[in-house]
Write a structure and sequence with these properties.
The protein folds into 2 domains: 293 residues, Zn peptidases (Aminopeptidase, 3-Layer(aba) Sandwich); 111 residues, Alpha-Beta Plaits, CATH 3.30.70.360. Helix content is 30%, strand content 23%. A hairpin with a 3-residue loop joins β12 and β13. It starts with 10 loop residues before the first helix and ends with a helix.
């Protein structure tokens, strides 16, 4: 067995560099990528890849970063792609991130200095209890950190650096892909799959050390438009306020089921309102609909429409339209046909001394859509925790283990060929 243990990891230095670049995506933008600032990180990654010797590294007009680690094996090995996304969530500011490294964590609370109301503790962050003696990276309290998914970006970059300088580890061709706009569901909208030229893939965008995910939610977006009746409030008996109709619809959504608040940790899906824009005359409510089973999406959407019909029936003259748009589907539908892709990910973790945890994602990744685009693509841990908020954190030692896992995956594909 070849020892996969870099003499010196560069992942932390890279991560601290990357999170300082604001790459927040914008769901209301009509451009691609949705924000030009995502390309600032893309340009830096290309520069660093070229400095490593990845001669074909480049960023295309859409902000995708590509690169190739040439094969050093004489075998015909499947081309493996490692993928991470460069953007951060619109839910919390990613501007002027000030990362802090809390060395040799010994338990208890971590208070973030710029907002002392932001406190990480093992009660709300159970995985912290597994990090005794490790180094924890957080933001300073007024922004997110950006571990989702710059931890994955940094891990892939460190693994590429190691592969380019360690010929003892045999591997086939490795393709590198960094995407924009994953957080707003557009991460692979403009991706040229023929240009990518990979046979299998792994997104490095998961949470707990050892986790590998071969199943995601299936997802739809539902847009409800309510047409009210607007008149002067002095003659209010004829008014049918779209604001009040919309509020009534939201109020009638189930309280004890079909909501993120009541289904966490289960296989149950939900209907979740994410935006509400309204005047008396017209209101628009944006929902996301999620479930592991495609047939359940239809049931949830039917239930939503029944609620809308019931509410509208009490407002004579008002009307509505409900539009459903498919977002992505459960990647298990594809990965179940290619079990070796996930099993090699599991084997790679065991190879480097990690206990694998096979599980499902109550969400989605670029891998969901890539799988349906012809690239079977499970999701591997990056060590990210508390995504999209000011308490986001990552362990340095977990990031290092992710680097080793990437290296092992590339090597095992060569061994098994």
């Amino acid at each position: 067995m070849i020892q996969i243990e870099p003499a010196e990891f560069t992942v932390l230095a890279r991560f601290l560099r990357y999170v300082k670049i604001d790459t927040q995506s914008d769901p209301y933008s009509t451009t691609f990528p949705s924000t030009e600032k995502q390309k600032d990180l893309g340009r830096l990654l290309v520069q660093e890849l070229i400095e490593m010797g990845v001669s074909d590294a480049h960023m295309d007009e859409y902000g995708y970063v590509f690169g190739t680690v040439p094969a050093n094996s004489e075998k015909e090995v499947p081309v493996v792609c490692f993928c991470a996304h460069m953007d951060t969530s619109p839910d919390c500011s990613g501007k002027d991130v000030k990362p802090l490294v809390h060395k040799n964590y010994q338990g208890g609370d971590i208070v973030l200095p710029n907002d002392t109301s932001q406190v990480l503790n093992p009660l709300h962050h159970p995985d912290l209890s597994k990090q005794i003696g490790n180094d924890i990276v957080t933001a300073s309290g007024d922004t997110l950190l950006g571990a989702d998914n710059k931890a994955g970006v940094a891990e892939i970059m460190d693994a590429v650096n190691f592969l380019m300088n360690t010929p003892e580890i045999k591997h086939g061709k490795v393709r590198i892909l960094f995407t924009p706009d994953e957080e707003i569901g557009r991460g692979v909208d403009k991706l040229d799959m023929e240009k990518l030229g990979a046979d299998v893939g792994y997104t490095i965008d998961g949470e707990t050390l050892g986790s590998i995910e071969d199943e995601t939610f299936s997802a739809d977006a539902a847009t409800l438009q309510i047409n009210g009746v607007s008149v002067h409030p002095g003659f209010g008996e004829k008014m049918k306020s779209a604001i009040k109709i919309g509020a009534n619809v939201i109020e009638k959504l189930p309280k004890d089921r079909l909501s993120p608040e009541t289904t966490s940790g289960s296989r149950n899906g939900f209907i979740h309102p994410v935006a509400f824009d309204a005047t008396v005359e017209r209101a628009t409510i944006e929902f996301i609909v999620r479930d592991f089973e495609d047939k359940n999406l239809v049931k949830h959407e039917q239930e939503l429409e029944e609620i809308v019909k019931e509410v509208i029936s009490n407002y004579q003259g008002a009307s509505y339209s409900l539009t459903i748009k498919e977002q992505y589907r459960n990647m298990k539908h594809v990965l179940s046909r290619y079990p070796e892709v996930t099993s090699i990910g599991i084997e790679a973790m065991e190879y480097v001394g990690i206990a694998p945890i096979l599980r499902s994602i109550r969400g989605g990744t670029d891998g969901s859509r890539l799988s349906f685009m012809g690239l079977p693509c499970p999701n591997v841990f990056a060590g990210e925790h508390a995504f999209h908020g000011k308490q986001e954190w990552v362990s340095v030692q977990d990031m290092q283990k992710a680097v080793q896992t990437i290296l092992a995956i590339a090597h095992i594909w060569e061994e098994r060929t």
